[in-house]
Design a protein that fits this description.
- The protein is α+β, with helices and mostly antiparallel strands.
- Helix content is 25%, strand content 24%.
- It has 6 helices and 12 strands.
- The strands form 2 sheets. Strands 3-4-2-1-12-11 form a 6-stranded mixed β-sheet. The protein has a 6-stranded mixed β-sheet with strand order 5-6-7-8-10-9.
- Helix 3 runs parallel beside helix 5.
- 43% of the residues are buried.
- The structure holds one DNA strand of 15 nucleotides.
Length: 255
Amino acid sequence: MKVASWNINSLKVRLQQVLDWLESRSPDVLALQEIKQVTEDFPADAFREAGYEALASGQRSYNGVATVSRAPLLDPVTDIEGFPDPQRRILATTSHGVRIINVYVPNGQSLGSDKYEYKLQWLAAAREYVAAELQRHERLLVLGDFNIAPDDRDVYDPVAYGEDIHTSGPEREGLRALMALGLTDVFRSFPQPEKSFSWWDYRRGRFRRNAGLRIDLILASEALAKACTGCRIDREPRGWERPSDHAPVIAEFDL
DNA sequence: ATGGTGGTCCAACCA
């Protein structure tokens, strides 16, 4: 099973890029974040014609997640129980015998802001939801845009960047607490090129200078982490005309 | 310290 995650920063703008990418990489599952469209506008037909089932949880202008799969998408859940939230940031489905929890963790804006507090609360609530899901599903993935660089290897210049949004102690602790449920960041299960990143700000030539962060992650339960045979970041689409600011992450599992 | 770019959708917000 080949699984991918990609923050697409508007599916309206980049639907053709996603379809081209599906055709060339041929994943079994693709988790999309920041589709930035309401669920009713989600182009399920275009995915069906490409041979994929698709489900979305969208909203106007901001956020929105969708999951695309070769196999049916079962038991969809679009909210964290006990954490009422109008922002569409999570979509859990079951496909290929795997519980797939697609997340768009809040950005958090700046340390100490209201959005930062919301980010930490969202993470804590997501952790409780994932804990419950792990009781029900041995094979489970949490993948998406976490808006957190797990450690200094995931930051282009950790000294210059310092303790800021995406790298702060409380954010990293929130991610660590989620992973402590028994989830593995499978990218780090394999040797990787130095300075591997998944997001580069559009401003100041950050992609050209490879001044990025690795904030898009695929976390696997123990049973799946053991079955993982590889994980890589596909930088190519970031270099395309009118790209998303994120690159896709791909993991393969021998099930 | 500021502003640089890009998306949504037309003023301002979000990243």
